[in-house]
Amino acid sequence: MVRAMFYALHNCKSNDPMSVRSIIDTNALNIGGLPGSYNGAYAVVGTDISRLNHRFICIDLLLPFGSANHEHHSCAPNAEYKWDLMSVALYVRAVQPIKKGEQVFITYCDLLQPRAKRQEKLQSKYSFKCSCPCCALPDDQSALSDARRTEVSKLSQELETTSDLLGVYKAQLEK
C-alpha cells in the first residue's frame, strides 16, 4: 500500500513515473539531521504534493501515524514546520495570526535569498514559478525587499558568529 502511494506521488523531474529519485526530489521536506554517524540531512516525503494553479504546493506526509494538511509554499509564510524526532511528527505552527478559513503557507526555500535566487531554486527543485505576494511585487519594490532580506541575512550571520565566539569564550572560562 505505501509503495503504491509513493509511486502515485507527483513527479516534476522526469517522464519516468517510476523514478524514485525524482519523486523524492519533488516531494521531500528537509527535516535536518538525525542521531547517528551520518552527517547529512534527512527528509520526509509527502503523499499529496500537488500544484494548485501552478503556484503553491500541498503536503500530506507519507507516514502511517499522521499527516499535515494543505500547507502551501510562500516566500512570506504565515506558518513554519519543524520535525520532532522524539514523537516522529511534523509540527506546523503559525508565525502570524491565521484567520479561520485562511490558507496556511510554509516555505520551501531560503527566505533570506533575493527573489531571483528563490525563483531559481523553486523552479529547479519543484518545477514551478512562485507567484506569492513577495514574488509578485513590482521590480522596484522587489529590489527594496531583496535589500532588506540581504541585510537580515548579514545580521543573522553576525549574530551566529558572535554566538559561536561567546560559546568558545565560555568554554575557555570553564576550563
TrEMBL record:
Signal peptide span: none
Record-linked InterPro entries: SET_dom, SET_dom_sf, SET_domain_protein
Domain SET residues, every copy: 16-109
SUPFAM superfamilies (UniProt xref): SET domain (SSF82199)
A Pfam cross-reference name: SET
Gene3D superfamilies noted in UniProt: SET domain
Name this protein carries in UniProt: SET domain-containing protein
Lineage: Eukaryota, Fungi, Dikarya, Basidiomycota, Agaricomycotina
